[in-house]
Structure formats: C-alpha cells, structure tokens
Design a protein that fits this description.
2 domains
C-alpha cells in the first residue's frame, strides 16, 4: 500500500512540476505572472468529465456547498491543485522514522 501511495504521489508531483514549467514559460513570454487555472486545464483535457463532475455534485445533498467548493478549486492554479495532494500522498507512503539514539559510550 505504501508503494502505491508513493508512486501516485510521485506522479502527481511530476505532473505539478510540468504544469509549473508551462506556467513559467508563459509568464516569461508575457513579462508577468500567469498561472493556468485548474478549471481551464481540466476543460482543455476533457470537458465532458468536468460537466459530469458538476452534474454529479449538483445531485448530492449539500449541492450548493459542493458547487461552491468545486468552483473555488477550479480557480486555483493547476500546479497547486495537483501538487499538494501529491506531496501529501508521498508523505503518507514513506516509512515511519525510527529515531536512534546512541549512548556516549557507543560513539
């Protein structure tokens, strides 16, 4: 399970880095900061899945709240929306740290 979490986290971090490089080149060309919104990237990749997600969330019990949350997430920069869950998954998949303390006589 840890391997799957680390693998998925690594892929998401790599995708976030690609999105950040794309935003960086666009920013250099425009001479000011430009970040692609997650909604623009999702609509560019597969518009029908975005509409399906919107219709799915609108049929749920807290539809107004979920639509507001989705609208907020869709306006964030794409590299952040993909990168933050990637970092969290990668950290969840790492091995637990075991602190080892040495006595002064063992040094």
């Amino acid at each position: 399970m840890r391997f799957a979490l680390r693998l998925l986290g690594t892929w998401l971090i790599a995708l976030a880095m690609v999105l950040l490089v794309i935003d960086g080149t666009k920013s250099l060309a425009a001479n000011h900061l430009l970040f692609a919104e997650f909604g623009q990237v999702w609509a560019g990749l597969h518009l029908s899945s975005l509409e399906a997600a919107r219709s799915f969330l609108s049929s749920r019990f807290f539809a107004d709240l979920l639509d507001g949350v989705l609208d907020a997430i869709l306006t964030y920069p794409a590299f952040a929306v993909v990168g933050i869950p990637g970092i969290v998954l990668a950290l969840m998949g790492r091995r637990p740290r075991r602190e080892r303390f040495l006595r002064q006589s063992e040094i």
